[in-house]
Every structure is written in structure tokens, then in C-alpha cells.
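Review form for a predicted model. The reviewer records the input and the model, then writes brief findings.
Reviewer: anonymous (R2)
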Amino acid sequence: MKDKLKHNLFLHTAAILAALFIMLAVFAIGLFYYVFAIPEPEGLSLASWPEAFTDNFSFWIEEKDGAIGVRQIGVERLDEYGLWVQIIDENGQEIFAHKKPGRYPDSYSMAELIALSESGYENGNTVFVSSATVSDRTVNYIVGFPYSIGKYRLYYNGENLARLSPLAKKVVFFSACIIVLSAFAYAFWLSRNLQAIIGSIRNIAGNRYKPLKETGIFSGIYGSLNKMNSEIRHSEKIQQETDRIRTEWIANITHDLKTPLSPIKGYAELLTEDDSLAPQTVQDYGRILLKNVNHMEKLMNDLKLTYQLEAGAIPYAPREIRIVRFLKELVIDIANDPAFSKRIIELESDMPERTVAVDADLLRRAVENMIINALVHNPIDTKVRVSIGSAPEGGISISVADDGNGMEEAELSGLWNRYYRGTNTKERPEGSGLGLAIARQIITLHGGEITVKSSVGAGTEFIILLPAGAAAT
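Model under review:
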């Protein structure tokens, strides 16, 4: 199959070159006739025809009854081509004329005849002058042609040309052979390169591609193939990593859903099987059930929210809020949560109060996720600092920084993936692994961006930049 394809490719290239050669030859022939041919009743004739006709016209000049004139066949040929003739004697006087235009004189001097023989197209005619000997008399005659014909003479050394003629034929022959061989060599070379390119594309599809050297006239194509293969392999690697993380995330979600289900099931069985439980015990069991149900509900809500944000299906309802007060209330609410009552959370602001239009519920969710992420993934003595300030071009900057464990570069690269769950804590966090992904989607929805800086042992800082225009969204 490969040899057949290569053979067909070679023939196809050779056919194209042959077609181009034929087209070039036809074009050259057509151009030659366009430049060096003139129309006449029988079709196209070379532009040298009028001069040859004039020279041969002498055969039709005769003397009859002492008068010089033109044979009937000559007159017919003149009429057939729409030509005219004027015969001049030795003294320059007209002795015969046929359809001569009135603007030409009846007598000429020798200088005028010479000038006329070299003249170009004028008065609607190009004239040629020649001479003939009739009955020992020499006469000149003028033939007029209704065509614009250029008159140029070329002089050359006939002896040298005669010697060069055989050599010229050999040169032309060998040149033609070289051109043909070069064309087929080029076709073969081109077919090999095209075959290599086609094979490379096939190998890319079959994951068998080996990078090509980016040299020669096809270096750009080879470079593009190498780049395409690299990007495909990179995309496949990302896809494999995404599938792996998705699988792990599904396993984590499944485990996290089973974790609260176990106590829910156990305490529910106790409540249904033992009707002698004290009221206080029943309340304690109920609180445990409620806690685990709330945890399951949070997991499901996080999962729903991230896909709503990605699909643009969640309602976006911006309203004006005072941003400094908004963050202050958020920090107070988190600090008052019993789970974080012993943690250190500070709020700093270096700008006056500003009123902005944002979706307060979504923005609260984003900032809250980052604060809780900093608390959960760091030791208990870690200090979390929330600060707000002005950003360039009238924007707002919100920072959530901690002095905790920090993260390595490899961990930062997957931080915003919705399937990512932190790995730098000894205890398993009760989260969905969606917090930071949700935060980023929310900030993007507001037209802003979120970045992170971290260093192992020095802590982590998340920076939210909300543009000035986001308030008008």
C-alpha cells in the first residue's frame, strides 16, 4: 500500500509538471503568434509575410503591348487581401497603379523611395518597396498593406552562424534533456518529501511519530508537525491527569458521602430500636444526625454550584454593598464559628469605605472558601490576615494570607482544578475539594481574577482583583 501510494504520488507530480510544461509551450506559441503574426483572409500569417509577398509580386508584373502592368492573377491576389500597388519607372514616374490611395503621389525621387521603404505604419497603411526587371527594364513598385507592421532588420555574421548552427542544435537538445531529467528528479524528490510528510501525519494519528529534523525547504512544515505532535501528547497527558484526578475525586466524594451516612444510619437504628432512651440522649442523637445531614447537603450543594457556574446557569444578581463592612462581617462570622473559635483571623484595610455592586452571596462564598481553606489546611496557631485595598485603574484588591505551611510549585499547578484536594494536612479535611474552584469561577463571573503566591514554610496568599467596571456589571 505504501509503495503504491508513493508510486501514485510520483506519477501525480510528474503529470502536474508535464501539464505545466505543455501549458508553458502553448502560452509561448500563442504569445509568438500574438506578437509576430497578422490577420489576413486565409487566417494568421507571420509578420514577415507582407515582405515576402512584395518580393514575390514581381512574378506578376508583365509588359503587354509596350505597357507595363500586372497580370490578372496578381490583381486578384491584391483584391483578395485588400492591398494596393503602384509601379514606378526609372525616372520615378508612375506607370501603373491599382487601388492606390489618393494621398500617395504620382512620382518619387530615389531618396523618397528609400525613405518610404523604411517608413512605418501611417495613413492606415504599411508600405513595402521592391524592384523588378521586365523586358530589360528595371522598375520599382510599392505594395500597400492595411496592417500595422513593424520593420526591423537584424545583421549578423553568417559564417559564424553557420558554424554555430550544429552546436546550437546540440545545446538545445542537451538542454531539453537536462530540463526533462531535472523535472523528473524534482518530481521524485518532491514525492519523497510529501510521502514523509504524509507518513508523519499518519504516525501522529497512530501515536508512533518521531520528531523530524527541521531542515530544508520543508523545515516550516516539519516544525509544525513537531509542534502539533508535542501539543497532542501534552493534551493527552493533561487528559490522563484530569481523568485520574476525576476518578480520585469521585472516590473522595463517594467516601465523604458514606462517612456521614454511617453515623446517620447507626443513630437512626438506635432511635428506632430503643424506645427507652432518655430525652437528652435523643436530642444528642438528633444533633449528630443533623450535623451529618448538613455535611452531606454542603457536599451536594458544592457539586451543584460548580457545574452551575461553569454552565452559566446560576442567577447573577449584583447589588450595591459597602465592601469594607461586608468583609468585616464575614470575618466576624467565621471567627464566631465554634470550629474556628481558637483561630487567629485579622482584617486590615488601607482605603476608605467604598460602595460597589457585586453579587453579595456569591462573593461571600468565594472569600469564605479561601479563608476556611487557609484555616483547615494549616496548624491551629496559624494566623490568617484578610486585607482590602485599592488596585490600579480604580479596582479593588482583596488578600487572604496566612503564615502556615505553604505549598510547593507542583501543588500550586493543580490548585484551581475542581477535582483537587489539598495534601499538606495530616488530617483529612471535611471538604468537597471544590472550594477554590468555586471561588475562582465566582471571581471570573465578576470580571475579576484571582492569583496565589506560596512558599513552603512561609505561608500562602490569595489575591482577588475586582476591576472598577465590575461594579457596573
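Findings: Residues 424-429 have pLDDT under 50 and may be disordered.
Further findings: The first strand starts at residue 37 and ends at 40.
Recommendation: see findings above.
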